[in-house]
Amino acid sequence: MALSQRKRRIGASLALALTAAAAVPTVATAGPSKSGCENRNLNQTDKFLQCVDGDDVFEHLEAFQAIADANGGTRASGTPGYDQSADYVAGLLEDAGYEVTRQVFDFSLYTENSSSLTVDGASIETQTFSYSGSGVVTDGNVIPVDLDLGIGNASSSGCTADDFDGLDFSGDDDIALLQRGACAFGDKAANAEAAGAEAAIIFNQGDTDGADRQDLIGGTLGEGVFGIPVLDASYTDGVAISTAGSVSLAADTTIVTNTTENVIADLDGVNTDNVVMAGAHLDSVQEGPGIQDNGTGSATILATALAIGNNKKYTPQNSLRFAWWGAEESGLIGSEKYIFDPEFGISQEDYDALAAYLNFDMVGSPNFIYGVYDADESTFPAPVVVPEGSEALEDLFEAYYTISDVPYEDSEFSGRSDYQAFIDVGIPASGLFTGAEVLKTAEQEAIWGGIAGEQFDQCYHLACDTIDNVSEEAIEVNVDAIAYSIYNLAASTEAVNGVEGVDVKGTTPDEVEFNGPEGTFAEGGGGFDPGHAHPTS
User: Fold this and answer.
1) Which of 19, 255, 267, 528 is the least buried, fewest Cβ under 10 Å from its Cβ?
2) What is the DSSP code (8-state) at residue 220?
């Protein structure tokens, strides 16, 4: 199957000029006009899905592309391109009757200018951990810290200050060699610096054969202030470094304080004490416009929210909240601020009211698979605690795909996107994902089409992540999957948190015999690169 492409033009109103509609299976049939949807009685699933389609999503994607084009090709947090994207989203939501809150916050914008690692004269693949300090160490003294090697290890290397007891960091060129596991990377780096190390290398844990525990980590130290360089290494290279004769490293990094915002939109339902929330990060990376990552997640929930808000007859049973996160690409900062920053006033009452959080980060990859976060751990043992109720959310997406005869796959419930903060406080979560820089297999090509041996998204975090990097087919399917899930949760979250609602007119997960995931992933990630979204531990 050839990758779906759509010819477009950007007009004065950013309207779409479509040459063809993709033939994809959905629950809904052809829908009414926009004016018809505004006055339609949305009393059953099919009626709602007929009012949400890919054309609306692409209209928003065109707007994001135009904003990026007018602002140096980027919509990264802290840039005018992001600010204008937030204005665009907030303005449409306000016009649709939502109560919009714009949560402004400062964050540290991190840039790696260069990094290098040489072991016994050979260059080793490396990168800095986000928020690493700068520095150079030549012919350094490598000091392994409480390593635990081999499959099945339970490394806690560098997690506590006493891991450094008895180790001599009194020299001028001491490099602490640390292993992933048990605590945050920032804690390991801070302990190494406090012990007197001039630099640190954190290598992957190697406790399983999965790429996410063997390859480079691509992690973040958080927003702490670190005065030493902290470099990344694969598990195999870390083991080699532990016995190396000569190790040199260098890092040149820049950290500046910038300002960005979250856009939060609320619509009261009959039950104001039971809130269903959906979110997507609005920012791109500095290198490109981020139309797939994550214009697609942002535009699909925007289209869904507007279809609800602009309707003059529909009031949800449960209250709805939509979020467009800032600074996700800098380490999930916007969603972390929302949950944990007391300046935003998130009280215990607010936590208690949150019934569920749905996350949409990359839902239109050009070489896609249809992935659902694996809350029931049927494919991937989760490296995080999965809150009770998350399995029922996974069921919603799998029910839609099954009803529509769309094959689907599990994606690791890893906490590597904005749902991490929510599961950290026990809020049930799920979401969709169509793949990043993992290579598609021949088996996956046979199921979903596309091109085996190429990344799910060849423009991931690159300048070519433009409007032409989005699959029309994936958007047409996933916007309905998202709308189906939100519509069902707006009626009832009883399967998630026990709160009774109202009956849904339409096929619900209770009536579906799931097809089940295709089971095409031999090892971890489910389409996630091991470093996706900068893990913190």
Assistant:
1) 19
2) B
Q: Which tens digit of pLDDT belongs to each residue from 330-352?
A: 889 999 999 999 887 677 888 89
The 8-class DSSP code of residue 292 comes to: I
**Residue 362: is its pLDDT beyond 50?**
yes
DSSP β-bridge partners for residue 180: none
For the chain, give percent helix, strand, coil, nearest 5: 30, 20, 50
Instruction: Find tokens 């477009």 and name the residue.
Output: 8
Q: Is the distance from CB of 69 to CB of 466 less than 8 angstroms?
A: no
User: What is the rounded (10 degree) CA torsion for 62, 67, 70, 75?
Assistant: -120
Give CA–CA dist 23/507, Å, rounded. 22
Q: What is the pLDDT of residues 239-273, one digit of tens each?
A: 999 999 889 999 999 999 999 999 999 999 999 99
328 is catalytic: yes
What's the rounded Cα separation, in Å, for the pair 419 and 262? 14
3-state secondary structure of 24: coil
Nearest in space to 431 (alpha carbons), one of 476, 499, 375, 492: 375
Task: Tell me the C-alpha distance between 165 and 146, whole Å.
Answer: 10
What is the pLDDT confidence band of residue 18, given thresholds at 50, 70 and 90? Answer: very low
Structural domains of the chain ordered from first start:
44-108+258-511 (3.40.630.10), 122-245 (3.50.30.30)
Catalytic pick among 328, 445, 472, 476 = 328
HSE-CB of 487 using CA atoms within 13 angstroms: 30
Rounded to an integer, the average pLDDT of 501-511 is: 94
Residues in the chain: 537
Closest CA to 390 of 437, 432, 426: 426
Nearest to 221 by CA among 251, 262, 263, 261: 251
Q: Residue 513: is its pLDDT beyond 90?
A: yes
Task: Give dist(CA 267, CA 245) in Å, integer.
Answer: 62
HSE (side-chain half, CA atoms, 13 Å) at 63 = 24
Distance (Å, rounded) from C-alpha 8 to C-alpha 110? 35
- Of the candidates 380, 350, 337, 358, which has an alpha carbon nearest to the alpha carbon of residue 486? 358
> How do beta strands 247-267 and 135-144 pair?
antiparallel
Render pLDDT for 111-139 as a digit per residue (tens, 0 to 9): 899 999 999 999 999 999 989 999 999 99
pTM of the model: 0.83
3-state class (DSSP) for residue 16: coil
Q: Are 496 and 420 in contact (CB under 8 A)?
A: no
